[in-house]
Write a structure and sequence with these properties.
Elements: H1 3-17, H2 25-33, H3 37-50, E1 53-56, E2 63-66, E3 70-77, H4 84-96, H5 101-121, E4 126-133, E5 137-144, H6 149-157, H7 162-171, H8 185-192, E6 195-200, E7 203-206, E8 228-235, H9 242-248, E9 259-263, H10 277-284, E10 292-296, H11 305-318, E11 323-327, H12 331-340
Parallel strand pairs: 9-10, 10-11
Antiparallel strand pairs: 1-2, 3-4, 4-5, 5-8, 6-7, 6-8
Helix pairs in contact: 1-2, 1-3, 2-3, 4-5, 5-8, 6-7, 10-11, 11-12
């Protein structure tokens, strides 16, 4: 370990332990790393300057506390005693203390849902969790060493390939354990955060493609060892409320998940065009579980006549109880959709 890595480890330990050692943090850290309290004090001053910790008092009465910037990271064995609510409460809740209630609610929901998925579905031996808040945002990473989410869904749901698993997951109501799970956690989490991404064995699900998630966060897993990595980000000034997210996808008469938004772009494999009825049928799989289906055409520049006809005439005619809507259409896409729509009135 070089001096830079050692210094970073010392500072992480200070931030982790300052809550429990407000008056003797320098002596406490000095004992752990076999260095002098004076050497630790230099790290403490740096952390205070950067905003990770704050202090009050002087001399022997000086006390240190967590600052506005916070982080925690750790690797946990997936034992029967390990629970999502326990690790949040005992290890990570301090990262989110003092944030607006709507932000804490979203972070708590996403954190516990994604960790629970690891516990119940990953078949892994360990989970690595990293949570950090800076002046502008909060980020949460959950990485396991299991089979891989898309590989497992493909295997248990007998799908064509892992890209199809990704696509089905994005619709919601997909679970490999229907007796114990609704398949809603990833769907709602992905819509509650400003950025959400799953990376598993080279297959990536993301509402935004800008983030290069390479399992680099000093995780104990290499990229080849990691099964599934989940990345969540929310800006600290977000006014989003988790209950509103639930309500947006629930029916008007009862609290039931009955609406989905399908990112049509995910139906494209590599550089292929969306032109065939088989592609449309892949898009339409399982949507009979919803009453309202919104096709989001963002990033899709054109579609074929057969593709549009299969969705907006054939399927619509055979499923009059399902409302089909389209958003974010470019001109070429809108023309093809409208071309299919008039014949709906002939049913």
């Amino acid at each position: 370990m070089n001096n830079k890595e050692r210094g970073e480890r010392i500072r992480r330990q200070i931030v982790r332990d300052v809550r429990h050692h407000p008056t003797d943090i320098s002596k406490h850290i000095a004992k752990i790393f076999s260095i002098t309290p004076q050497a630790v004090h230099g790290h403490v001053k740096r952390l205070e300057k950067e905003g990770w910790i704050i202090s009050s008092g002087t001399g022997k009465g000086k006390r240190y506390f967590l600052g506005n910037l916070r982080e925690h990271r750790s690797l946990f064995p997936l034992t029967p005693e390990f629970t999502e609510d326990g690790v949040w409460r005992n290890q990570y809740s301090f990262v989110f203390d003092g944030l607006p209630e709507n932000i804490v609610d979203i972070c708590h929901y996403g954190f516990t849902e994604m960790v629970n998925n690891v516990i119940d579905h990953s078949d892994g031996k360990h989970v690595y969790i990293y949570a950090v808040r800076d002046k502008e945002k909060i980020m949460i990473f959950v990485i396991d060493d299991g089979e891989g989410i898309f590989k497992k869904i493909k295997r248990l749901c007998d799908l064509h390939d892992e890209r199809q698993a990704l696509f089905e997951l994005s619709k919601g109501k997909l679970t490999t354990d229907p007796d114990n799970h609704t398949g809603e956690g990833i769907f709602f989490t992905s819509r509650a955060f400003d950025e959400f991404e799953i990376d598993s064995k080279g297959v990536k699900f993301s509402h935004k493609d800008q983030h290069d998630f390479g399992f680099i966060l000093e995780s104990e897993f290499s990229k080849n060892e990691a099964g599934t990595g989940v990345y969540m980000l929310i800006n600290r000034n977000s006014d989003r409320v988790i209950q509103t997210i639930f309500d947006d996808y629930a029916g008007p008469d009862e609290y039931q998940f009955n609406k989905t938004v399908i990112p049509v772009k995910l139906a494209q494999y590599e550089n292929e065009k969306l032109v065939s009825r088989s592609q449309a049928k892949r898009l339409l799989a399982r949507i009979e579980r919803f009453e309202n289906v919104v096709f989001d055409f963002e990033g899709v520049s054109a579609i074929g006549q057969a593709f549009a006809d299969e969705i907006f005439r054939v399927y619509a005619k055979n499923h009059p109880d399902i409302v089909l809507l389209s958003i974010n259409m470019e001109e070429n896409v809108e023309k093809m959709v409208n071309r299919a729509l008039p014949s709906i009135g002939e049913k």
